[in-house]
C-alpha cells in the first residue's frame, strides 16, 4: 500500500531535521505491519504522541529508539 505524504509534516522552514510521521509511515520505515506499530504503542514500547485519536511519531525519536533497542542475539555452541 503506498504511503501518502499527507500525514508527513515538514517544518515550515523546509528543513527535514525532524519529521512527524503517522502509523503507516513508521510501519514502512521499520518494515513491519501497521498492527505491529499499534501493538508497540499499546505497550508504550515506542516513542509516540496521541493527538486526539491520531498517533504521531517523531522520526528522530523512532530512529533513536531503534538504535537503542537492538538486542544482541545469543550465539549457540
Summarize the structure.
The protein is α+β, with helices and mostly antiparallel strands. Helices cover 35% and strands 14% of the residues.
Low-confidence parts: 1-6
Task: Supply the number of helical segments.
Answer: 3
Mean pLDDT, nearest integer?
A: 83
Q: What structural class do the secondary elements suggest?
A: alpha+beta
Bulk shape: globular
Question: Rg from C-alpha positions?
Answer: 14 Å
Strand line-up of the largest beta sheet:
1-3-2
**Could you give the count of β-strands?**
3
Q: Classify the beta-strand content into a percent band.
A: 5-15%
| Proportion of helical residues | 25-40%
User: Span between N and C termini?
Assistant: 42 Å
Give a description of the structure:
By secondary structure, this protein is an alpha+beta fold. The chain has a domain at 22-64. It is built from three helices and three strands; from the N terminus they run E-H-H-E-E-H. The chain has a three-stranded antiparallel sheet with strand order 1-3-2. A hairpin with a 2-residue loop joins strand 2 and strand 3 (54-58). The longest helix has 10 residues, at 59-68. It is globular, with a radius of gyration of 14 Å. Mean pLDDT is 83; it is low at 1-6.
Map the helices and strands.
Layout: E1 20-22, H1 23-30, H2 34-42, E2 49-51, E3 54-58, H3 59-68
Antiparallel strand pairs: 1-3, 2-3
Key structural traits:
77 residues, alpha+beta, three-stranded antiparallel sheet, 3 helices, 14% strand
Amino acid at each position: 500500500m503506498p504511503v501518502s505524504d499527507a500525514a508527513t509534516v515538514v517544518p515550515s522552514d523546509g528543513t527535514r531535521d525532524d519529521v512527524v510521521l503517522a502509523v503507516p509511515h513508521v510501519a514502512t520505515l521499520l518494515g513491519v505491519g501497521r498492527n505491529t506499530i499499534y501493538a508497540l504503542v499499546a505497550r508504550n514500547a515506542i516513542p509516540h504522541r496521541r493527538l486526539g485519536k491520531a498517533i504521531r511519531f517523531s522520526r528522530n525519536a523512532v530512529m533513536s529508539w531503534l538504535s537503542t533497542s537492538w538486542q544482541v542475539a545469543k550465539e549457540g555452541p
